Amino acid sequence: MTQTGKGIEIPLIPQNAIGPKVPPSGYLVEEIADGVHWVTDGAYQCAFVVCENEVIAIDAPPSLGGLVTRAIRDVTSKPITHVIYTHSHGDHIGTVDQFPDGAVRIAQQETHAILRECADPARRIPDVTFKDSYRIQVGGQTVEMHYKGSNHAPGNSFVYLPRQRILMLVDVIYPGWVPFTNIAQSKNIGGFMAHHDHALSFDFDVMITGHLTRLGTRLDVETQREYMRDIRGAAQHALEITPEKRILARDTVGMDHIYLYFKTMYEAAAAEAAKPVIRKWSGRLAGVETLGVNHTLTMYHSLRLDENVKPQVVFFPPTDGTSDHHH
Ligand SMILES: [Zn+2]
Asked: DSSP H helical segments within 33-143, as ranges?
């Protein structure tokens, strides 16, 4: 822990969570292997592939904005002819309108459906869609897209470069860090969990994850899978201790304000159950001290609602011979 001038405690960030330094230009562009480049501002990541006569762009986060095109132009003057959307979210494709109108936009069907609903001029509806997989073969490069079902967002797809052994999957794997808030804001927690195994089923060495400071590896995927399994175990434990937290909530805030009652009960269960996970991962994955309880609580609700795991039902013991529902 370090302390700010105002006495706020900031957990230490493990060395493994710190990537290459971003130059004063505000972006880092690097060739990973044979034409495949990643671009980052230290918080967001996108990519592009240089082919014989053209460029395939993948995502354009607003945090980088026009710097994406500048990064491409640092490397090549070839025209951008294809634009891949990994998923529909504005924070990853919100500035794809910087690419030429003539460039073909490619995304999964679910992404198309979401973008049609949004009708956001900055995120044009894709011209080409696919259901399970799609392959682009241009100018000596092969780029595959694969969809393995809903995860962080419906439509969120793998982008795979088989020859370079590079895999891109955005908003699921967080190299060196635990996932972002509410389990990476996942629309489908079961799908999010399954995507660790789906990722490892690809033959790859390097991963572009869409966020944070560095590229990922297979080990990062395996490490996060272990962390997420621990979170799932903690959430199961939180369900087990919910009956006692029910009593705690009733005795501290009462039951008249029903939202306050449930919030107190849930948060007490998650806070207690997350403790061993935070102890285990502190110093190994950045952010666990900050989000371990949040992840446990998110998983708790997923178990309860998606998987129908029920907290053990106990009825409050009558205190004076009458039901506690009777005030
Ligand atoms: Zn997203």
From this structure: 67-75, 90-93, 109-118
- All domains of the chain in start order, with CATH: 2-216 (3.60.15.10), 218-327 (no CATH)
Q: At CA 50, angle to CA 47 and CA 54, rounded to 5?
A: 120
Q: Tell me the pLDDT band of 312, cut-offs 50, 70 and 90.
A: low
Count of beta carbons in the 10 Å neighbourhood of residue 204: 22
Which residues have C-beta within 8 Å of that of residue 279, sequence separation ≥ 6? none
Task: Give the per-residue pLDDT at 317.
Answer: 55
Residue 32, SS3 per DSSP: strand
Query: Counting runs of H as helices and runs of E as strands, what totals does the chain give?
Result: 9, 14
In the chain, the largest separation of any two C-alpha atoms, in whole Å, equals 83
Query: Cα(170) to centroid of ligand 1, in Å?
Result: 7
Q: What's the 152 CA to ligand 1 centre distance in angstroms?
A: 7
The angle that helices 242-253 and 218-240 make with each other, rounded to 10 degrees, is 60
**Span 23-44, pLDDT tens digits:** 999 999 999 999 999 999 999 9
Ligand 1 mean position, distance from CA 298 (Å): 17
